[in-house]
Batch of 2 targets.
Target 1
Amino acid sequence: MDKKIKRIGVLTSGGDAPGMNAAVRAVVRTAIANGIECVGIRRGWQGLINSDFVMLTRESVGHILSRGGTILYTARSEEFMTEKGRLKAVATCKMLGLDGVVAIGGDGTFRGALELSRLGVPVVGVPATIDNDVGCTNYTIGFDTACNTAIDCIDKLRDTMQSHERCSVVEVMGRNAGFLALYVGIAVGATTVLVPERPIDFQKDVVERIQDSRLAGNTHFMIVVAEGVGSAVEIGKRIHDAVGMDPRVTVLGHIQRGGAPNARDRETATRMGYYAVNAFVEGRGNSIIATQEGGIVEIPIEEALQRKKHLQMDRYRIMEIMQYGTKHNLFGV
Ligand code: F6P
């Protein structure tokens, strides 16, 4: 883009994630440092449709770096999925004189960003979701904080499961991906981890893992289940029927979305927010800010949305060896 950027919008969209506020703060302060005004769009893409906005200053984003959630609110917008809705959003951008929009969210947010860019509004996306399931980036804001929240909860569960010599089945978030479940499962020393990326052989993946753990001398068992696999309650019932235990089931749910962002999320969000505005300052747009090998890169939105990220199944081998030595090779890796 050759025209000087004078005003940009910033919004948060999709499921909220710890660190979104840090990203908003970085966008606002980088914009202001470059003489660019910043308009906060509330409630995601729906906010553009409804002209739901607030002017943001350096002071507006003071003291939010360490706060979970998003001061701009977030929402999922059915109306934005329609051409009519998107045209209303474009009209708002024109009314506000926006030269571009920074959209902070996940894959769904970026699909909306692509549509808006095709209608002539430059957009730069910042990946923020606790699922870490955005294909173009190694890391999404909120993932590490969410993992540590889940790990803290499961460590507490282990205390009581150990005392009563019980089996715990814990359902974690992640939508249709197992990144959160696998990372947490390794970090808590789970007896087994079930993820949607791999069809479950219940006998081998659950029953035999519990039996082997018992043979290894354990008297309590921690089963981590990604929500994309299905209901942890059902997994608990199947364990009861198969091995005669009476598992206690815990669905961590939205607690994984809250809490103060940790160091990694605050720092990553700040860098990503800075680079998002920097793209506009340097005359670019229609890209997603991504981390690759620890560095920050910009990827064109269309290309970014086509990229796929696969679960690192070799990490299961590591978990198996930690739990069982070499007997089981769950994924043949
Ligand atoms: O995408 C983030 C996420 O927390 C998923 O892990 C989860 O499945 C989903 O959002 C829940 O959505 P909602 O907050 O609308 O119930």
Target 2
Amino acid sequence: MTDMMNGVVLSGTGGRWEVRLEDGTVVEASLRGRLKKSDGGLRADGTIRRDTIAAASAKLKLAVGDDVQLEREMATDDWAIGEILPRRSQLARRAPGGGFGQRVIVANVDQVVVVFAAAKPDPHERMLDRFLVIAEANGIAARVVVNKVELVDGEAVRRRFAPYVRAGYPVHFTSVKAGEGLDELRAVLSGRRSVFTGPSGVGKSSLLNALFPGASLRVGEISESVNKGRHTTVGARMLPLPEEGGGYAIDTPGLREIGLWDLALEDLDACFPEVAALEHGCQFNDCRHITEPGCVVRAAVQRGDFSRERYESYLHLLEELHAGSRS
Ligand code: GDP
Ligand code: ZN
């Protein structure tokens, strides 16, 4: 006799997985043997068929955030994950060592929330641009939170982040201390699965605790304790939001480790909305928007439609990708 139920993988790497069942209880579960085994790419002599390994591992490797179907062995009371339900999105990086396959850091992400402080510490826009490119490269919506706004002049900080509003990103100005902007932020987190990222000390934990009192959500700390003593540094963790609408805050130290070399040089344009909007306008099809004549991207920078700072981020990342593709 077995019992069947659906759930969401909250955490775990290798072996045991923490799964939240539909009724809200959290259980430890193992992976069914037939799911674990990735023999789809093996030849009879044991060597790996390279063309199939990527597909096989993408299909079979369980990740945090996966919606799963579990079975409970009545006799032993053990839960086993029998089925991974189709993913609607994922944050992935290329498998270590390059080559085939990819490592899914977290599955079924609705949005990436990049948090910075207006001051203490000062915002680092080039780092923000990098996070936004990672979200775009994975096809995941992104929003920006600027916290601690009570420390600075409100108008100046809005001017500073205006290029992001113009690029189409929702930008939230919040203060945990002054209770500013919290209701709006709560509304867009509720019912969604949001990856939280940004430098430490900007107020991510403070924000989550102010938004969802009693939940005791400590971004960062939790993953540190989960990963203690393990070899992996990449361990995403889903923190259920105590809201009627549900939703999760996702803490993933692995986001910083996503190298931009995961991105093909020609895909960078699509990761800057300002550039993507001008697609095919340049004189040359393969224009990299550096010094080429008839470049509408540089014209947009001249006009002030594409901020010079964001353009410099673009050039910087282009250079980085170029260096990566040579090595
Ligand atoms: P995290 O590392 O991003 O999770 O940041 P924390 O939530 O631990 O906050 C870092 C520090 O910033 C703490 O001392 C908080 O009290 C403080 N802090 C958080 N939000 C605000 C805010 O809106 N204004 C000010 N002035 N300080 C804040
Ligand atoms: Zn161009």
